[in-house]
Amino acid sequence: MLGHEGVVKLLLARDDVNPDNPGNEGKTPLRGAVVGGHEGVVRLLLARDDVNPNKPDNLGIIPLFLASYKGHEVVVRLFLARHDIDPNKPGKGGETPLWGASSSGREGVVRLLLARDDVNPDNPQDYGITPLWDASMNRREWAVRLLLARDDVNPNKPDNRGITPLFLASYKGDEGAVRLLLARHDIEPDKPGKGGETPLWGASSSGREGVVRLLLARDDVNPDKPTNVSKTLRWGYSGWGQEDVGRLLLTRDDVNPNTLDSAGETPLCVASRMGHVGVVRLLLPQVAANHDRPDNDSPIPPQGASSNRHAPVVRPPVARGDVTLNKPDNRDQTPPRIFSLRKRRQTMAEPAPRLPGKRRRKN
Fold this sequence. Notes:
Blueprint: H1 5-12, H2 29-36, H3 39-46, H4 63-70, H5 73-80, H6 97-103, H7 107-114, H8 131-137, H9 141-148, H10 165-172, H11 175-182, H12 199-205, H13 209-216, H14 233-239, H15 243-250, H16 267-274, H17 277-283, H18 285-288, H19 335-349
Helix pairs in contact: 1-3, 2-3, 2-4, 3-5, 4-6, 6-7, 6-8, 7-9, 8-9, 8-10, 9-11, 10-11, 10-12, 12-13, 12-14, 13-15, 14-15, 14-16, 15-17, 16-17, 16-19
């Protein structure tokens, strides 16, 4: 629709014109006016009682969803003024107008919809993704704040995979959203997903030090809680080399640095196998001084050297004296053995040095 308001008035004045007649794809004149952002035409059509404001196209998309998704605030107001409007009507994928406005970052429209008592702010789409989940995923702190102001929004509602909004905000390091979620009286900060990963596990594995501090400050967060495959928080920092996060966790008395995962590996085994020198030094400060020699089986390489080319460790270690150096994994390999094998494989994989000499010319 081109938005010729005068022509629309002429046509609507005739009794033999159906203003709600859809095209081949179920697209009505009202839908076309919304897509084009033609406020005047939308106003004319909505003034007719024989125009259904909730009529979807063949894809199940209603005009209010389109107006909300595109951020046409004036058009949204016109729709909401109709007594027969259904502001919660979902499309075929379950997306409501509020979901569309929130996912596309339309703050003004979100405020308009949340101001209505008949709008359900917690309606998920077919994958279980609520507006709050989507806002947490995409780091839209303003949307998280607006949605959490409603008591009928469940801050612990997961998607179909069991992932909660707090896990997403923690994993992505959105400290503002994490603070807002933790401020809700009904938040479950230790709620695991289907795989057992808690928000603290997510923040730990992705190296979000600020979020880890926020979560560890709470009494209802268990810093030693394992996942379904027994990968505790220590696996998170040791497997991904998150030294700063590991430092925070190891200062806690309720964190056991020697717990085995499902593969029979301690955090020290994991860090040694992955070549995370900083984490190894963090776990073994009491033996670091005696193992800074290049030709031994220690899991600690010489100071300033790194098997995975990480920067030299310069921060002081945590004073933990309860880390077991020679505890083997299920394959009966100890951390020193694991690290020495890693160094040996890397040495064998290095290309042979090019010998000096003249290159032969090709004939």
